[in-house]
Amino acid sequence: MKNPLGLMQKYKLGPLLGLLLICFVLTILTDRFFTTGNFLNVARQVSINALLGVGMTFVILTGGIDLSVGSILALSGALAAGSLAMGVDPILAVLVACLVGLIAGTINGTIVAFGRIAPFVATLATMTLFRGATLIYTEGRPIRAVSEGFNKLGGGYIGPIPTPVIITIIVFLLAWFVLSHMTFGRRIFAIGGNEEAARLSGIKTTRYKVLVYSISGLLAGLAGAILTSRLLSAQPTAGSGYELDAIAAVVIGGTSLAGGAGGVVGTLIGALIIGIIDNGLNLLNVSSFYQQAVKGLIILVAVLIDRRNAVRR
Amino acid sequence: MKNPLGLMQKYKLGPLLGLLLICFVLTILTDRFFTTGNFLNVARQVSINALLGVGMTFVILTGGIDLSVGSILALSGALAAGSLAMGVDPILAVLVACLVGLIAGTINGTIVAFGRIAPFVATLATMTLFRGATLIYTEGRPIRAVSEGFNKLGGGYIGPIPTPVIITIIVFLLAWFVLSHMTFGRRIFAIGGNEEAARLSGIKTTRYKVLVYSISGLLAGLAGAILTSRLLSAQPTAGSGYELDAIAAVVIGGTSLAGGAGGVVGTLIGALIIGIIDNGLNLLNVSSFYQQAVKGLIILVAVLIDRRNAVRR
Amino acid sequence: GGSKDPQAEAPKGDEKQLTVGIALSTLNNPFFVDMKDGAQAAADKIGAKLIVMDAQDDASKQVSQVEDLIQQKVDVILLNPTDSDGLVTAVADANKANIPVITLDRSVNGGTVVSHIASDNVAGGKLAAEFIVKQLEGKGSVVELEGIAGTSAARDRGQGFHEVIDVQADIKVVAKQPADFDRSKGMSVMENILQSQPEINAVFAHNDEMALGALQAIEAAKKQILIVGFDGGDDAVKAVNDGKMAATVAQQPKLIGELGIQFAEKVANGENVEANIPADLMLVVKE
Amino acid sequence: MEILEMQSICKEFPGARVLNNVNLSVRKNEIHALLGENGAGKSTLMKILTGIYTMNSGSIKYQGQQVNISGPKHAEELGIVMIHQEFNLIPQLSIAENIFLGNEKEFTTLGKINWRALTSASLQYLNQVGLKVHPKTQVADLSVGEKQLTEIAKALSKQAKLLIMDEPTAALTETEKEKLFSIMQSLVNQGVSIIYISHRMEELFQICHRVTVLRDGEYVATQDIPNTTIDKLVALMVGREVSERFPKSTTTPGDLLLQIENFSNHRLNNINLQMKAGEVVGIGGLMGAGRTELARAIFGLDRVSGNLKLHSKDGTSFSGTFSHPQDAIRHGLAMVSEDRKDQGLVLPFSVKENLALPTLNSRSKFGVIKHKAENEMADHYINLLRIKTQNREQKVISLSGGNQQKVVFGKWLETHPSLLILDEPTRGVDVGAKVEIYELINSLTAQGLGIILISSDLQELMGMSDRIYVMYEGRITGHFSRNEVTEEAFMGCATGGVQ
Ligand SMILES: Nc1ncnc2c1ncn2[C@@H]1O[C@H](COP(=O)(O)OP(=O)(O)OP(=O)(O)O)[C@@H](O)[C@H]1O
Ligand SMILES: Nc1ncnc2c1ncn2[C@@H]1O[C@H](COP(=O)(O)OP(=O)(O)OP(=O)(O)O)[C@@H](O)[C@H]1O
Ligand SMILES: O[C@@H]1[C@H](O)[C@H](O)CO[C@H]1O
Ligand SMILES: [Mg+2]
Ligand SMILES: [Mg+2]
């Protein structure tokens, strides 16, 4: 084989290499980085974006996009906090958040699949719509969400591992299984690969297209519950801009925006890359003005390295 | 023809119909809307988004996307204001802004075309990078830009028409001519329609791909100069989120995100729709919490109406 | 929502109803919601109509909104600018249309403004710094969580804070990072700082939202650190009383909004008003 | 005199050696056929010649000069022009723009296009190929055949000295094919040389002078057409004897299988048709007659009014119309679609994943895919249909056209249908594989399957159908049984005459 990196190509190890490189550099630059404490810390910070990224992966695999996840996160968090305030059971409050997310996602999916509107426009509109709904419901104020049971979701631990990290790992494993071992996942790939061929093969493409947005919404709802529980309050502005980070995680992870190729393993790596860059720049105490520029540069370089190893046509 | 709206389809009048409908409703609801004063007012407000939208149309026609326009706008505005502060001639300051935009756009194009990085990721990274550069240059503070000559660009009038409106109209006409009557424009459509076929026909696709980002950057730079001149200061946070509005204008105007189909006429209409919704909601005194929800809904409905008339496959 | 305006449908009586436009930098922050509520209550009381605009922290959006207010021919504009320079044009436009402007909370650097109602953010930053110096007895490591880069609130509070802190020989600002006035960003930035700085004695956050986020991070790390916020919002005052936060520099947003309406009425009636009306700042500590 | 000499050309793709010491020499004024099975390397060799691929070793002599062709534009400057096997048109642009894409210069002043000049210049080439569509029409609105004619017009506009045609007739009907041949003849008379790739053997004897045969990426032989026969060539290509070109076996038709009553929609006009189990019913007609439209309507892809009655082999019957292909598949229908890349295959998928797509449920439990069963199924069809692939995990995008077609076939066979619709099933398929497909058709009808065969290859249609319906402008204008059909009678109906 001419290219010594052939193996890496085959197993799409580019993003992983990028991640390891960043970790290596940070370990050399600061002794605060390579510690169990910091790893758990990063893992917890990353979990929200990873959850959104997993849902986003489903959507992007079909060739779609979901810009509304940040707004769904805020809306479901607000309604969970609202239910808590009304004296509802903590577990029920979490379910409320998930349900709200599911409904919002299903609305997205219906508009995209049945209304045949470009996903970008449809979810751009619902992003504004759901944010508006959040503002109306909260009247622009944070809603307090203090309840011991509820706060364990975002702030608790199972053994030494923060609960959100455990939840994220479970969701990730489930998603991985669905995508690589179930007919459902295979059909999602098929729709992204060639929607017309998928339809001709008897796949009800509209149904699956609705479902991927439902999943994305559901996970955004779950993320909303976790964030609310972690902050002890639901913020009306929570999650704004999160869609871009989630999409970045997916794409840095090697999933094609055209759909049909990729997966959640890459997304997890992508989310870790973004999270670790943020964490590292903070640890290195890089001046705040330089942080953004440096972050942009690192992402560029990481993706460029990855692409240089990609198969040439 | 079965469909009575066939003519409308043929000339892609969906967005125009949406625009007229919105204007009609607003004229009925408030007597403040249908006045020359308000029209000029809206036209001026829309001009920035329209300029960005025109550049974005070039990019999207090739199948790309440019998320960095807001950051480029801020960076070029800041450097224009900085030059002014250094005593440079106003006209030169405007040229500085355009040049900065052109360079930034060319960087985007080079990364996309030669680095073969997905435009979404590439410009997401440079969006962060250019914003960081702006923060570094401005040290996070607005830079004052008060100079009589310079301020005419954004705040002046030619006859009764605000200067930014005149500039936008000229840019729009040029872009329209290039896209519909020049080889350059037709090749951009060809690349978006089938890049491989375009390449096999001997078109240097990479060169054109660089150029569309340069154009988008240049217009973002011009918009930056206008906005700075209008605000009498360059804001380090100027333009954040503008990319989404510009993309929305393009897509509402009927240009396909897949590339190859659409044009600037639609984009202008799209920008007007967005601008008039904002203006109308303000004139109608819709409570600010409801504004976002209503705006999201109107965009959805407008696009749905349009799509219902679209050709079925 | 609470923003419903009963006066909107009321028939215009024999005498002309006063219409005031209030252009706020953002409503995604309880501080400004309070300001709006204060103004609304005052307007309801005198039977004035209040038109509320939310610029979502975007200067050019706010310029557009002021233009739209001018199109509606309101009697007075209450302006809470997103930025001091950026809104000069809008003020000039209002001047041209002969609509008087009163600024709230933040000032503008040009045009004619009949009156400015605000608390002094530089003074507030100093107040916070002096409190920290006293509590630390002049010795220790301090973290500063900054507001959105480029906003005057972040600028002024930082300036006031550093004027006091930087002259202290034994107090060091060991980390200074932006968290954008946002609670969740405040938390994650603080988490990272806690990883890199073993020894932290106090945190000054440019507003309460970030302070409350930092509090979450600090509690999770099981550390004892002095936290000082800014604004005096409900959640923060409760945290102070619970002993979780050390203090918050309280502004009086409701009062600022209320004063805004009172002065708008005076201006509309042709009365002369003072150019500068200060709203009191006050350090809230545990009772 | 030789215009082109390609010597010892070798080409490797990662993991596969595709060309091994291939030679090809083409004389001036000659039509030189390039022949070989699917995947033999014909298209690859031609892509090397036009600078799209770079060869690993070998040399190219063109007009007596050693050349190093750097890209398609360079090839074009040398006068080497290729009509690709897969369309290279921009769907959103007009016919005229497509014809001159990349060569707009002579119609532009300072970058501005002179539309009138462009349109009228394109008319000349459209007339030459006999395409009677307005040059301003968008290519997206053309049928497959019309697109092929546009491709040919585009190549003609480039004033080639050496013209390469990679299966240009695959999508054409008899009339257009004859037109094309006369164009080729007149080009040769004007001094042009042509390399002609086709899987339709009789065409070579109609139009070509010499033929070079490739097998598995190796050069086999070059022969003069007058001194050879179809059987000899087939033997060279396949490496073994192939018995009969159209091995049609006659089966006694069984019970009524399908009845179509009054099918009408925007492109179909009151179609009535019936067939029995075990029958092969051919549907013929000229380009754009509406055959594909009929197939789509039957399969539930497009809305249609009227009624369809289906009596499946398991005794169930259906009456109505299908609203989704899933319905159709459930009731025992399968369809090999006309355009494999657009509708037949998921290109980023592997051979295995494509084969598995319509029948995922049958190899899964609680939605979990049984990978072992899937692998076995895939290997079964790779062997059965002799799909030339490295293994079941190879991406279909890197298969040759004919092998891609076999994958589409395989995925539908796995649904065990009672009625199989084949829309141009042998387009781009080599002789050996064609015979395999015909034999497959035989064994399927023997099992009682009904087959609807849509084909523009009249030989094939007449050779394989029990009965033939002829369509014209969305209507059925003729109906023949196997032994009564003649070419003249068929063409009469296909051009709108009545039987
Ligand atoms: N990009 C590629 N990567 C790997 N293998 C390839 C690639 N392109 C072609 N091949 C392989 O090269 C071989 C020759 O392909 P080619 O397209 O030249 O065949 P062909 O003779 O034109 O066949 P057909 O008659 O089916 O068109 C095939 O086995 C094919 O799978
Ligand atoms: N998307 C489209 N828009 C407009 N007209 C179309 C479209 N697709 C096909 N047509 C036209 O509809 C008619 C029927 O097309 P159809 O594809 O069914 O023909 P066909 O008999 O299968 O011919 P072909 O051999 O070209 O496949 C043709 O005149 C064709 O040009
Ligand atoms: O004074 C206000 C508040 O402190 C708010 O938290 C941010 O913006 C400032 O202007
Ligand atoms: Mg081929
Ligand atoms: Mg057809």
TrEMBL record, chains A, B:
<feature type="transmembrane region" description="Helical">
    <location>
        <begin position="12"/>
        <end position="30"/>
    </location>
</feature>
<dbReference type="GO" id="GO:0022857">
    <property type="term" value="F:transmembrane transporter activity"/>
</dbReference>
<keyword id="KW-1003">Cell membrane</keyword>
<feature type="transmembrane region" description="Helical">
    <location>
        <begin position="91"/>
        <end position="111"/>
    </location>
</feature>
<keyword id="KW-0472">Membrane</keyword>
<feature type="transmembrane region" description="Helical">
    <location>
        <begin position="157"/>
        <end position="179"/>
    </location>
</feature>
<feature type="transmembrane region" description="Helical">
    <location>
        <begin position="244"/>
        <end position="277"/>
    </location>
</feature>
<protein>
    <submittedName>
        <fullName>Ribose ABC transporter permease</fullName>
    </submittedName>
</protein>
<feature type="transmembrane region" description="Helical">
    <location>
        <begin position="289"/>
        <end position="305"/>
    </location>
</feature>
<dbReference type="GO" id="GO:0005886">
    <property type="term" value="C:plasma membrane"/>
</dbReference>
<feature type="transmembrane region" description="Helical">
    <location>
        <begin position="50"/>
        <end position="79"/>
    </location>
</feature>
<dbReference type="Pfam" id="PF02653">
    <property type="entry name" value="BPD_transp_2"/>
</dbReference>
<dbReference type="InterPro" id="IPR001851">
    <property type="entry name" value="ABC_transp_permease"/>
</dbReference>
<keyword id="KW-1133">Transmembrane helix</keyword>
<feature type="transmembrane region" description="Helical">
    <location>
        <begin position="210"/>
        <end position="232"/>
    </location>
</feature>
<keyword id="KW-0812">Transmembrane</keyword>
Automatic annotation (TrEMBL), chain D:
<keyword id="KW-1278">Translocase</keyword>
<keyword id="KW-0677">Repeat</keyword>
<protein>
    <submittedName>
        <fullName>Sugar ABC transporter ATP-binding protein</fullName>
    </submittedName>
</protein>
<dbReference type="InterPro" id="IPR003439">
    <property type="entry name" value="ABC_transporter-like_ATP-bd"/>
</dbReference>
<dbReference type="InterPro" id="IPR003593">
    <property type="entry name" value="AAA+_ATPase"/>
</dbReference>
<dbReference type="Pfam" id="PF00005">
    <property type="entry name" value="ABC_tran"/>
</dbReference>
<feature type="domain" description="ABC transporter">
    <location>
        <begin position="4"/>
        <end position="241"/>
    </location>
</feature>
<dbReference type="InterPro" id="IPR050107">
    <property type="entry name" value="ABC_carbohydrate_import_ATPase"/>
</dbReference>
<keyword id="KW-0813">Transport</keyword>
<dbReference type="InterPro" id="IPR017871">
    <property type="entry name" value="ABC_transporter-like_CS"/>
</dbReference>
<keyword id="KW-0762">Sugar transport</keyword>
<keyword id="KW-0472">Membrane</keyword>
<dbReference type="InterPro" id="IPR027417">
    <property type="entry name" value="P-loop_NTPase"/>
</dbReference>
<keyword id="KW-1003">Cell membrane</keyword>
<dbReference type="GO" id="GO:0005886">
    <property type="term" value="C:plasma membrane"/>
</dbReference>
<keyword id="KW-0547">Nucleotide-binding</keyword>
<dbReference type="GO" id="GO:0016887">
    <property type="term" value="F:ATP hydrolysis activity"/>
</dbReference>
<keyword id="KW-0067">ATP-binding</keyword>
<dbReference type="GO" id="GO:0005524">
    <property type="term" value="F:ATP binding"/>
</dbReference>
<feature type="domain" description="ABC transporter">
    <location>
        <begin position="251"/>
        <end position="498"/>
    </location>
</feature>
